[in-house]
Amino acid sequence: MTAIAENKPAYDGQELDLSGKSGARAFKNTLATVLIVLAFVVAMIPLLWILGTVISKGYHLLLSADWWSQSQRGITVRREGGGAYHAIMGTLIMSLITAVIAVPIAVLGAVYLVEYGKGTKAARVVSFMIDILTGVPSIVAALFIYAVWITIFGFNRVGFAVSLSLVLLMLPVVLRSTEEMLKLVPDELREASYALGVPKWKTIMKVVVPTAFGGIVTGVMLGLARVMGETAPLLILVGYSKNINLNPFNGFMGALPTMINQDRTELALQPAADRVWAAALTLILLVLVLNVLARLVARFSAIKSK
């Protein structure tokens, strides 16, 4: 009664001292905090170093309107001028085709694993194959598409073949991230929908997917960031062109990674070096802009769904 009256917890007649941490616990807490901060600093140092170097060496070409509106047609490695319009459009077109193919397959696959196939043999097989795809190098994916697209079917090296190989790289990233986001949706939301007589497929479309939409968009952006900088599929499946080609089914196409590769062998020449750094900075900015747009879309969708 005394402990209750004094608002102090008691256990078997003995008062519990919860006034502060013990010396050992305080030391472990401080040590863990210091290690986490150090790990963050160590991770940020190379990131800031790379960003600072790319920005300082490549920003001046991006300030020119020609960089965003002209191609490299007629420009040699020793000559200044031209732009990256052909490479920017090529990168965006091939990435868009990749996303159009990979995202629906990945989202539907994640829905199957979480909502329908939980614990089944088929789901285990699908999960195992996704784990294998996660570790496939980009050059292996490119060689596989080369064997099918060019060797077996006899088609030409085109931008669409690059997109097919990038699908193999983007698919596991988006599927795994979507799967984890769907698992985080509380079962209470599903059960409440079922209790109202809503069919399972409609519950998934109207409740589960919208709830996890922000995380799904983040996974898509991670997948796009992974594939936009790949070079091996571009080198194997489509030739680099300095001309503007917006048709992914006909002819060679320019892309930012292959534009960098084109001039990297002549870094001793200042015009070539400037284009390499500017193309790298342009690629970083493209990924940044896509991520910002995706965040805005996810936030707008979350507000509308309330």
Automatic annotation (TrEMBL):
Q: Where is the ABC transmembrane type-1 domain?
A: 88-294
Q: Keywords, A to Z? A: Cell membrane, Membrane, Phosphate transport, Transmembrane, Transmembrane helix, Transport
Q: Where in the cell is it found?
A: Cell membrane
Coiled-coil spans are none
GO terms, biological process? phosphate ion transmembrane transport
Q: Which InterPro entries does the entry mention? A: MetI-like, MetI-like_sf, Phosphate_PstA, Phosphate_transprt_permease
Q: Which Pfam families match?
A: BPD_transp_1
State whether keyword GTP-binding applies. Answer: no
Topological type in the membrane: Multi-pass membrane protein
GO MF, one annotated term = phosphate transmembrane transporter activity
Gene3D superfamilies to which the protein is assigned, alphabetical: MetI-like
Q: Where are the transmembrane segments?
A: 31-52, 87-114, 126-152, 158-175, 207-228, 276-298
One cellular-component annotation, GO = plasma membrane
The protein's matches in PROSITE patterns, at most eight in alphabetical order, are given as: ABC_TM1
What CDD domains does the record point to? TM_PBP2
Q: State the family named in the UniProt similarity comment for this chain.
A: Belongs to the binding-protein-dependent transport system permease family. CysTW subfamily.
Q: What does this protein do?
A: Part of the binding-protein-dependent transport system for phosphate; probably responsible for the translocation of the substrate across the membrane.
Q: What is this protein called?
A: Phosphate transport system permease protein PstA
Q: Organism, per UniProt?
A: Kribbella jiaozuonensis
Q: Which gene encodes it?
A: pstA
